[in-house]
Amino acid sequence: MHLASLVSSCSLLLLLGALPGWAANDDPIEKVIEGINRGLSNAEREVGKALEGINNGITHAGREVEKVFNGLSHMGSQAGKELDKGVQGLNNGLDKVAHGINNGVGQAGKEAEKFAHGVNHAAGQVGKEADKVIQGVHHGVNQAGSEAGRFGQGVHHAAGQAVNGAEKF
């Protein structure tokens, strides 16, 4: 019992802090508490580092966003310049198209004039050919009349011959 009484007294003195430090250092509960305190200190340092990293990341992200906005602004400015160039090019192209249309209209006018001359010439040729056709028709009619006259004479002659033949019979 003496041993149990000694342990119980030491525990009581330990709890009250009356034992020397070397005795307290061997206490497993004290070691657990020190370990927990060290763990908390380390965790606090790590949380501090993490927060610092987060702040640095946010700051860096802000710089990157600023760069993006600056880039977009520059791109917008460039796009405006390119749009101006495009509009100038379009205007230039439209001027060329209008010039080409004017030249085309002039050329079409010349071609229409040539066509009108060709039509007039063709009409003259048609008139000449129509005169030839009419002359041919007149000649054909005259020839038909002459042939009809000869046919009539032939019929008359044949009738006379038939009458002569009938008289003889």
From TrEMBL:
Organism: Enhydra lutris kenyoni
Record key words, sorted: Signal
Annotated InterPro entries: SBSN_GxHH_rpt, Suprabasin
Claim: tRNA processing is one of the keywords in the record: no
Signal peptide interval: 1-23
Record protein name field: Suprabasin-like
Top-level taxonomic group: Eukaryota
